[in-house]
UniProtKB/TrEMBL annotation:
A GO BP annotation: proteolysis
Residue span(s) of domain EGF-like: 965-976
Name assigned to this protein: EGF-like domain-containing protein
GO CC list: extracellular region
Pfam families per the UniProt record, alphabetical: CEMIP_beta-hel
Keywords carried by this UniProt record: Disulfide bond, Repeat, Signal
Length: 1219
């Protein structure tokens, strides 16, 4: 018996646990195999014995340089001289002030390498360009340290330039076209692998698609290519057939016009012909540099430094690449960087652009960056760089990191970052302790994309299984950090173009904006190194108008995360946002009305299955053109009055043109009330009649308010607002269920509602009074309500009420007992957006001690009241004062929010199919377009008729050739041009290799499991069934694959458990599919296990396959074939490229059975159960259904134990159903 544990991800103080577990953490990490001579010459050769320096006096070949410098010399190439790489070069270190040239012509052999303790490009130029040959840059751990780039470095400084470019790929990643599931030996992609430039022998990784950072990636070697963009899988080492041992989702969903949710596992290619690698990681002890405080940055960057307040005693050193200072360049394209990062040493990352300022030539494109211990790519004090089409795997800490807060207009395009480890598994996710930013790297907030600067482009990126997908963080760094600490105002930064990104499977947030972000108009620019004049970081203009600079996040997709959203954020819109199956579809603590007076907070978006945690103010929060699908809940005033969050907890939620689809249950609450009896839900002015109703608003009602405001029931003689009991009776609803639906009670109104708020000063719970609000109609007092004092923090204090606008009734407001309302207090009624977009709200309001105009309306003075974190700094503003109304805004003539900065003077010729980069004056292509003039329309090739183009946010120009369109509901086909759904494709037959491991506890709560060593799938599953009646929980990590008819379950402590199906007619299906497979119950006959005989050892395939019998394959099957590439097959074939090593004299006559190569689709299946048949007794193992699934209309079995569910005329197969 064994047990399995749940592990905690690393916090900053967990260095000791990290060091102790290091061998476990890296045991499955991958580094590329090295040429034998490189490994023997350079790998782990330890310290250099001498460090003399030599400088050449003439240009020369590397073969001559090797003789001149030897292996123990720091070799210097002065300015004016060039080294041409014609052979391997091994030196102690290399300093380059001149040039090094390395290309396919200069390189004399198929593979060539350069070894050094560091390579420092000091004003010189390192040019490496290989398209057809293999090159290695090997950074040795020989103890040498350069004064600028430090140890184990490949870096440039003093305007030095590094250009490394390998064989380009048309694409470095794609998505699964069909789901990949247990036992499959091939996968199908959206793009054709050969057209992407992928090759047999390349290593690929499939991203996890489980929720909440609970999945593990799987890596394989490409064994071959087949039709329908199919890749045949070999195992990680390329020595035998690769079998999928988990479940990888491939589901698409049409969520709106030009909106598609591509919930498909990423597949990345990690093979490159240039490899930057080096010696293994080493732990080194730190130096106590400042016992009483924190040492300066240059000390932390120089060596492993520790001090009293940091939880670090060691650093973990791999190689690092870097460009330092103005004029320096680091350009790495289609290169592999591995074993990189130096945990605990400042500035030492896999790729680092350090304080370069403008660097349009810094191009990090198409690289494979893997096995890193302290971030992937760091952009630090650098602008205009390009980070594009890179793939990241097994990077600890942030994958892409934007460091100080002044970085601007960097192009982060179409990258894929995979955290391959479950956060609670033994690898602890991708967390790492002991860095300079625990927010970005540890269990606090490890992120795929972490940024302090918001003014960059992030388009088409995908991050899977990280703790956070994207984290823009102002909290803790409100004045910048590092070199610009005290010089920035991150809270007010202009937001760049964030579009078309996908964040999934995150243990915390997908999209995440942390703390206070309220973009404003400042004078930041690239020419000013991204630094504003701090006096321009202002909440208001000189006349008290809002100084906001509205922005929008567009076309982003969040799914299977815990949270999506932000804390306190204003002037930020989510548009065309797709949020599916997140615990919180949106999470928003505090906001404000938009500066433009018109915009919605969430617009044109699709929210499916989850909770909307809505903010507790300030003002009107608009959700426009929304589709809510399935069970969606609305939590009002979320997090209000927790700490200092919220604004009197009295927001107005306005729904404009809302739609509801899918299935909901009346057993659950659809909304949740917040504190202070606050929040109100109301339809937009154009939707108030609500003739048809929807899941939230019953027909005829347009507003929902907290039951505390029962005083409204008297309005219009009780004809406008109704108690929940009355509405339930009116609609014939079950009162109990109706009460539960509305969180225990509500008042529903047929008229709109608005907020009335009074902000007081200098009160507290000890000296405050209550207020009285009276409702008058037809000249009579018809009802009244007491307004209780409410306070959050110091300045957020006062009173609030829900009111119905209109002039057919009157409100009288006073202190309880009739006392005057202080002239200092600020009164707000409704919000200006109603007058700007529709018709202004009006109310007849009398305030004791004030001279209110008639009517009081929504366009009254708002100056200096609210603009984000700075609020209520003046007194006596707002309604019922002498201050002028707000400036009129005509929303009908105002364009909708765009995420493209407007600068027509920079691109005077306009940008067809593109947009202007306001920093460079360059036209950049819109997503879906490419080419020098943005003239290649990737979507045109798809020709989608009743659906959306898949390729729009996938980058590059290569078209999608497998399932290029996402169809509207009811349409099918590659171009969504048919109403006939495709035929279902069955799952693979059962397979079970190296025995199965299963839990012997009675339920999933247990921890003990046992093992069967049987290689035959039915024997394996039969023993499992015999032990626990098919309620066992199988460890896939021990390579037991028990068919797709198994149920993937997440068990505490088990990263990827699956429920044993027995492989004998199980009707369970993987629980993570979006469209369930409906299979009628199946009665299963007892299984008779056919004996498995072991084939004799043979030398038939020596020299034709790799190694000796069984040639890296499994000899336990009836038939066995191998090939020279390390492939294995277990069905008969007549292919001369395959050699038979097992069962060669038992092959049946007739044609070979077709291999199941098409992965399953997610179409629903409805089948009936056939009667028990004996037609295949003796021809297939056991009795009906012969180890197959009898739930399909057609069933065939084979003597080897195979199953097929489509008609065939092959004598090798016996029909047992549907014959």
């Amino acid at each position: 018996m064994q047990t399995n544990n749940v592990y905690e991800a690393f916090a900053e103080q967990d260095e000791a646990a990290y060091i102790d577990a290091f061998n476990t953490l890296i045991k499955d990490s991958y580094s590329a195999p090295l040429p034998q001579d490189l490994s023997a010459t350079c790998k782990n050769q330890n310290q250099a014995t001498v460090s003399t320096a030599k400088s050449i006096t003439t240009s020369m070949l590397s073969s001559d340089l090797q003789i001149f410098c030897g292996t123990e010399t720091i070799c210097t190439i002065p300015a004016g001289f060039t080294v041409t790489m014609n052979s391997n070069l091994n030196v102690a270190a290399l300093v380059l002030s001149g040039s090094l040239v390395w290309n396919d012509i200069s390189q004399s052999s198929s593979d060539q390498w350069l070894c050094a303790g560091y390579i420092a490009v000091n004003g010189g130029q390192f040019d490496m360009n290989l398209t057809s040959k293999q090159g290695y840059i090997y950074i040795k751990n020989n103890g040498l340290k350069h004064p600028t780039v430090s140890t184990r470095a490949f870096g440039s400084y003093n305007a030095g330039k590094i250009h490394v470019s390998g064989r380009s790929l048309a694409r470095t990643w794609s998505l699964l076209a069909n789901r990949a599931t247990y036992g499959m030996t091939s996968i199908s992609l959206l793009h054709k692998p050969e057209d992407m430039g992928w090759r047999i022998g390349d290593r690929i990784v499939i991203a996890p698609t489980m929720s909440s950072s609970s999945g593990n990636a799987e890596d394989y070697t490409i064994g071959g290519f087949e039709a329908n963009n199919t890749i045949k899988l070999l195992n990680k080492d390329g020595t035998s057939t690769g079998f999928i041992s988990s479940y990888f989702k491939s589901t698409t969903l049409f969520t709106g016009q030009n909106m598609s949710a591509l919930m498909q596992a990423e597949v990345i290619n990690l093979a490159r012909n240039i490899i930057i690698t080096g010696d293994d990681f080493q732990h080194v002890n730190c130096v106590d540099d400042a016992a009483g405080g924190k040492p300066q940055d240059h000390i932390q960057a120089d060596h492993c430094s520790c001090w009293k307040s940091i939880n670090r005693n060691k650093c973990t050193l791999g190689l690092h690449t870097i460009a330092i200072g103005h004029g320096s360049v680091l350009s790495l394209q289609y290169t592999r960087i591995e074993k990189c990062g130096q945990r605990g040493i400042l500035g030492k990352y896999c790729v680092h652009l350090h304080l370069i300022s403008k660097c349009p030539d810094c191009k990090i494109i198409g690289n494979a960056i893997e096995y890193g211990h302290q971030r992937g790519t760091t952009i630090h004090g650098t602008h205009l760089a390009t980070i594009e089409n890179n793939v990241y795997n097994d990077i600890r800490g942030a994958t892409i990191y934007v460091e100080d807060g002044n970085e601007m207009y960097n192009r982060i395009f179409y990258n894929v970052g995979i955290c391959p480890w479950a956060k609670s598994g033994e690898k602890r996710g991708c967390t790492i302790p002991g860095t300079d930013n625990d927010q970005a790297d540890t269990t606090l907030n490890q992120a795929g994309l972490w940024g302090l600067s918001f003014t960059n482009y992030a388009i088409g990126n995908r991050f899977a299984n990280n703790y956070n997908g994207m984290l823009y963080q102002e909290q803790g760094f409100d004045r910048g950090r590092g070199h610009v600490n005290g010089l920035e105002c991150p809270s007010f930064q202009q937001i760049g173009r964030l579009e078309g990104n996908t964040f999934h499977g995150c243990g915390r947030f997908g999209t995440y904006v942390l703390a206070s972000v309220f973009p404003k108009k400042t004078d930041r620019s690239v020419d000013k190194n991204g630094l504003p004049t701090l006096s321009t970081c202002k909440e208001w203009t000189t006349n008290g108008e809002d100084n906001g600079l509205p922005a929008t996040f567009m076309h982003n997709i969040d799914y299977d995360n815990v949270f999506v959203g932000q804390y306190s954020t204003g002037d930020l819109q989510y548009r065309f946002h797709t949020s599916i199956n997140n615990n919180n579809l949106i999470y928003w603590k505090e906001t404000k009305n938009f500066q433009d007076g018109c915009s919605s907070h969430i617009a044109d978006s699709f929210y499916d299955s989850g909770n909307l945690a809505l903010p507790g103010g300030h003002g009107t929060f608009i959700l426009e053109n929304m589709i809510f699908n399935n069970q969606v809940n609305f939590e009002s005033s979320h997090h209000c009055q927790i700490g200092v969050t919220g604004v009197l907890c009295m927001p107005t939620y306005v729904f404009v043109n809302m739609k509801w689809t899918g299935v909901t249950s009346d057993e659950f609450s659809i909304l949740k009330w917040g504190p202070n009896n606050g929040a109100m839900f109301t339809l937009g002015p154009d939707d108030e009649k609500n003739l048809n109703g929807n899941k939230l608003f019953p027909a005829g009602f347009c507003s929902i308010v907290n039951p505390y405001w029962s005083y409204l029931l008297a309005l219009d003689n009780g004809a406008s607002c109704f108690s929940l009991n009355d509405v339930a009776s009116l609609l014939g609803q079950n009162t109990g269920k109706f009460m539960r639906k509305y969180d225990g009670g509500a008042i529903l109104c047929k008229r709109p509602v608005r907020r009335l708020e009074i902000f007081s000063f200098n009160q507290n719970s000890g000296n405050s009074q209550t207020m009285q609000l009276e409702l008058w109609q037809f000249g009579n007092l018809i009802s009244s309500v007491t307004l209780k004092f409410f306070q959050i923090g110091d300045r957020k204090q006062g009173y609030s009420a829900t009111v119905v606008p209109g002039l057919d009734h009157k409100y009288k407001l006073s202190m309880t007992g009739g006392g005057d309302v202080s002239s200092d207090w600020i009164i707000e009624f409704s919000d200006p957006i109603f007058g700007n977009r529709w018709k202004r709200d009006e109310i007849d309001l009398v305030v004791a001690g004030r001279n209110c105009p008639y009517p009081v309306h929504s366009q009254h003075d708002r100056r200096y009241i609210w603009s984000g974190d700075n609020y209520l700094t003046v007194k006596g503003r707002g309604a019922c004062t002498s201050f002028p109304d707000m400036s009129p805004v005509n929303c009908r003539s105002q364009p909708q929010l765009s995420n493209v900065e407007h600068c027509p003077d920079k691109c005077p010729n306009s940008c067809t199919n593109g947009y202007c980069d306001c920093a460079t004056g360059e036209c950049l292509c819109n997503p879906g377009f490419s080419g020098s003039n943005c003239n290649i329309d990737t979507c045109a090739a798809a020709g989608c008729i009743n659906g959306n183009c898949v390729a729009q946010y996938l980058g590059q120009s290569l078209p999608v050739t497998n399932k290029p369109c996402v169809c509207m509901d009811g349409w099918y086909g590659d171009r969504c041009d048919t109403t006939t759904p495709p035929l279902p494709v069955s799952d693979p037959a059962p397979s079970c290799f190296n025995g199965c491991y299963f839990f012997t506890d009675s339920d999933i709560a247990g921890e003990q499991f046992d093992v069967s060593q049987a290689a035959d799938p039915k024997s394996c599953c039969a023993e499992c069934n015999a032990r626990a009646a098919c309620n066992s929980w199988v460890f896939f990590s021990f390579r037991c694959f028990l068919k797709t008819g198994t149920q993937r379950i997440h068990k505490p402590g088990v990263m990827s458990g699956i429920k044993c199906s027995g492989g004998t007619g199980s009707s369970t299906i993987a629980s993570v599919t979006t469209t369930p497979v409906m299979i009628a119950p199946v009665t299963t006959a007892p299984v008779t296990i056919a004996p498995v005989t072991t084939a004799p050892i043979t030398t038939n395939c020596d020299g034709k396959c790799q190694g000796q019998y069984p040639y890296g394959c499994n000899p336990s099957f009836q038939y066995g074939y191998c090939n020279a590439g390390g492939g294995c097959s277990y069905s008969t074939m007549n292919d001369p490229n395959w050699c038979c090593f097992n069962g060669c004299n038992q092959q049946p006559s007739g044609t070979n059975p077709p291999a199941l190569t098409n992965p399953p689709t997610d179409a629903p299946i409805t089948v009936t159960v056939a009667p028990v048949s004996t037609s295949c007794d003796g021809k297939c193992p056991g009795e009906f259904p012969y180890g197959c699934n009898a739930g399909f209309p057609i069933g065939y079995c084979a003597s080897s134990g195979g199953c097929s569910y489509s008609t065939m005329n092959d004598p090798y197969w016996c029909c047992f159903k549907g014959c």
